[in-house]
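Bumping with the actual sequence this time:
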Amino acid sequence: MRTQATQPASFHQWKKAGLLVPGLLILGVASASAGDRLTQHFRVDPHPVVAIHNPSGTVTVRAWTKSEVMVVSDRSTPSVEVDASQTGNRVDILTRQVSDTAAPGDLRTDLEISVPQDAELEIHDDAGGVNVSDVLGDMNVETIAAGVDLEDAAGYLNVKTVDGSFQCVHCSGRIEVSSISGNFRFIDIHSPYVRAQTSTGNISFNGEFLPNATYRLKNYSGVIEVRFSPGDSFDLSASSIRGKVHNEARLDPPSHHHFLPRLGSALFGTLNSGRASVELSSFDGTINILKRD
């Protein structure tokens, strides 16, 4: 009787531990694989370079006050591995495929990376998304279908996408961005130089026009929209070969249109003392110069 009484108690303990229940064993292994998160730390000196190559997934980079780079990777399956290594003051992060039979969905890996504020970034992300905030170093970002969102960024920002959108909020560095079919949004910009070119996307600019600064926005088709305040100061050149130019600014000389072949139009003039240069051009898109709300 004592033996029979003690055996069930041990059996229940083993059962709770998952040692005798195949379903619990499978669940434990799947949980370990599905929640495959790896954290790595690298001590760095001022102005480190962080290079990121990720074929699929979200890359999130945030600045912090520590003199180190922390990489948190979350892979979907063991079909990929994340290699992170340091050479001098450079940290390379590479997501690579290790299974020849992996499906496209198996290759997704999300990266959360913390860097010093003065870090320089090199990011390549084919599909997913790139999000960077509070980093003041130079950035070079290249994507295929991944959208790029920057916030409170400075330095030289060079962004190239194929079909990815681009948004920059509170950015103050030199900005050059190009795409084939991506849409661009510039919100509360304080940049001395902006050059944005996309083939079939829309461009929206709402920011400060700094003295001696240059803003060049160009597309083939789509809408280019620029918002201004009455106190802004710039020389304006706006033209669309087959589209229209709509203007709400009181330019000097008074606003005048030059009609181009095939019903296109152009507009030239100066707002206030013309301290900044604004160039807007499109092939058959619409250009709107509107008052800021």
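The tokens above came from a reply further down the thread. The chain is about 10% helix and 55% strand.
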